[in-house]
Every structure is written in structure tokens, then in C-alpha cells.
Design goal:
By secondary structure, the protein is α+β, with helices and mostly antiparallel strands. 26% of the residues lie in helices and 30% in strands. The strands form three sheets. Strands 1, 3, 4, 5, 10, 11, 16 and 17 form an eight-stranded mixed β-sheet that branches. Strands 2, 6, 7, 8, 9, 14 and 15 form a seven-stranded mixed β-sheet that branches. Strand 12 (205-208) and strand 13 (211-214) form a beta hairpin.
Length: 338
């Protein structure tokens, strides 16, 4: 693989929610910011960082290297940490199993790993339902990248995002190319997809306080977990009333079936940014790629998070220094991981 190719991974991570089977490099803290400036993996370097915004860490991530190439996972949990932790512990294992059975990595083997993880997590919910029904409302967005034999595979459920930085000829410029498909009801295409799948349900998407939500409850249309929106037996008492639907569920509303794409890597593919939605709420694809391109790659993830925080502070008419001092027990609507 050309030396210039795939030198950086920036991915969502948490100090208590990261699994790295590579040379992890130096890590550090800056207030609520946790980071690894540079580390080594099978094909190059990676940088990791996160700003903690939740009192309970709901997110997980991993980077693994082995016979099937390099595997990157970003798991943005919601409703609690259980689903993201489960995915981090099991999705890569299922990916290894399906790839071994198929004697190689394909879009289908990755899809099967997602669906197997969903099936096993649903079984866990079934086991815990009588003692802990709230487990049915826990879910996770899942973003996976696999580099295998000069091919990049990207699989996603939810609204995390992968953006490729590609050099433009000999101009010294860089292009930002989004590789992932997002599943968030605020996107018109997602609302249309839901309406087509549920033509007899006028309330399949509801606008509440300026935000589109599936059944007026959840923004993402695909996830692992959230079984209360997939199986009728988990959408009833003793589940909290705010999650129970008023009409019968005759088919799953959400799905764990990922959008999967593959593309051959080229010598002018410079780096990839893997991030949860918190980053992209504050930085455009182009801005994020420019930040990485115009600075040395060591510390890129930390630099991106600080740029996003500065933009978040500007939107809230706060000083950046004041935003940094907010106690982690106070909810901040700027959960960012790259």
C-alpha cells in the first residue's frame, strides 16, 4: 500500500470505552477532553479524542488489526451504555466469524455481523425483560470501517459519519468526500423511506419542537438495540409509558440492517475521519478535512474536537474558556467524538 495512503484514523472513543489492538501511542487529558495524539495500526497512523458530555459514558469504540485487515468501530450509544458496550464486545467477533465462514471480507459478511449482533442483543433483552424492562429502550448507532486488500468497506446504522480526505491532483488541495449514509429523520430522504415502508401510518415521523422524530420519539431510523421499536412484545407494560406506542406494532419500525459500501483505495486518498454526529453538528465535512490537511497528523483528533467546541461556544454566545469549565454532570448538547 502506498506510503501516503491511509495515514490517519480519527475515531470516536472514550477513556473507559475504547479497545485498541494496535500501538496505542501516548494518551492524555485536557479537562474533559481525552485524547491519543498518534498511534500505529496495520496500514499507518491513527489519532483519537473525545469530549465527555454525559454523566454516564454511553459510547464505545475500537480499532483492531489482524488477518482480515484493519477494523474501526464507532458506537454512539443512547438511552444508556448497555447497547454500545455490547456492540463493542461482540460486533468485531461476529465480523471475524462471518469472514472466516465466507473465506474473505465482503459487504455481505459485514452486514451479517451487524444482524447477528442485533439478534444476540435482542436475546439479552429477552433474558432481562422481567427484571429490567428499560433495557429495551437502550440502543446504539454503529459505524464500522474495514480496510482489507486495498479496499475500504463502510457500514453504518444511525447518524455517525465517515469523510475521506482526497488529494486533488498536484494542486495541493484536498477534497472532502462523505462515504457513509446517515439514518436520521431530519433528512428528507429518510422520512420518505419511512413513509414508503409504513404507508398506512400518518404518524411514522412527527415534527416536535423543530426536530423530526420517528413516531415522535427517536431521531434515528436504524440502530442496534432499541428493541421496543422493533418487537411488539417489548412495547408494553412494564415499559415506561413515554416509550409505548398508542397503536399496535404490526411490523418493525426501526431496523439494524446497515447501509454498506465498498471502494478501492487510491494513492491520493490521504486520510479518513470517523466521527459521531456531535462533531458534524458543528463542523462541515470540508472544514474538518481542511483542519486535518493543514496540520501535522499527530493530534488531529484533538484539534478537530477543539475546533468543534469553539464553534459550539460561538453558537451559544459563550466564551470558549467558559464552555470548557462546564461540569460534566451538567448536560451539554455537544457530545463529540472523533
Amino acid at each position: 500500500m502506498p506510503e501516503a495512503l491511509m495515514k490517519l484514523f480519527s475515531l470516536c472513543s472514550k477513556p473507559l470505552g475504547v479497545n485498541v489492538s494496535a500501538d496505542a501511542g501516548r494518551e492524555g487529558r485536557d479537562g474533559l477532553l481525552w485524547f491519543r495524539d498518534i498511534g500505529r495500526y496495520g496500514f499507518g497512523d491513527f489519532s483519537m479524542a473525545v469530549i465527555q458530555a454525559n454523566q454516564v459514558l454511553e459510547d464505545q469504540s475500537q480499532i483492531e488489526s489482524g488477518p482480515f485487515g484493519t477494523f474501526v468501530g464507532v458506537y454512539d450509544g443512547h438511552g444508556g451504555p448497555d447497547a454500545a458496550r455490547y456492540v463493542c464486545d461482540h460486533l468485531f467477533r461476529h465480523f471475524q466469524e462471518t469472514s472466516t465462514e465466507s473465506q474473505g471480507v465482503t459487504c455481505e459478511t459485514i452486514r451479517r455481523a451487524f444482524l447477528q449482533t442485533e439478534e444476540r442483543f435482542t436475546s439479552l433483552v429477552s433474558e432481562l425483560w422481567s427484571s429490567r424492562p428499560s433495557i429495551a429502550t437502550v440502543g446504539s448507532c454503529c459505524l464500522v470501517g474495514v480496510i482489507h486488500q486495498r479496499t475500504l468497506y463502510v457500514a453504518n446504522v444511525g447518524d455517525s459519519r465517515v469523510v475521506l480526505g482526497k488529494k486533488v491532483g498536484n494542486t495541493g488541495g484536498i477534497a472532502a468526500i462523505q462515504l457513509s449514509t446517515e439514518h436520521n429523520a431530519n433528512l428528507e430522504a429518510v422520512r420518505q423511506e419511512l413513509k414508503q415502508l409504513h404507508p398506512n401510518d400518518p404518524q411514522i415521523v412527527v415534527l416536535k419542537h423543530g426536530v423530526w422524530r420517528v413516531k415522535g420519539i427517536i431521531q434515528v431510523s436504524r440502530s442496534i438495540g432499541d428493541v421496543y421499536m422493533k418487537h411488539a412484545q417489548y412495547n408494553r407494560e412494564p415499559l415506561n409509558g413515554k416509550f409505548r406506542l398508542s397503536e399496535p406494532m404490526d411490523m418493525p419500525i426501526l431496523t439494524a440492517n446497515p447501509s454498506v459500501v465498498s471502494l478501492p483505495l487510491q494513492p491520493n486518498d490521504s486520510f479518513i475521519i470517523f466521527a459521531s454526529d456531535g462533531l458534524w453538528e458543528h463542523l462541515s465535512n470540508e472544514k474538518a478535512v481542511d483542519i486535518v490537511h493543514n496540520h501535522q497528523h499527530a493530534g488531529s483528533a484533538k484539534r478537530l474536537i477543539k475546533a468543534a467546541l469553539q464553534e459550539a461556544a460561538r453558537k451559544r454566545e459563550m466564551r470558549f474558556s467558559d464552555l470548557q469549565r462546564i461540569d460534566k454532570k451538567i448536560p451539554m448538547n455537544c457530545k463529540i467524538g472523533i
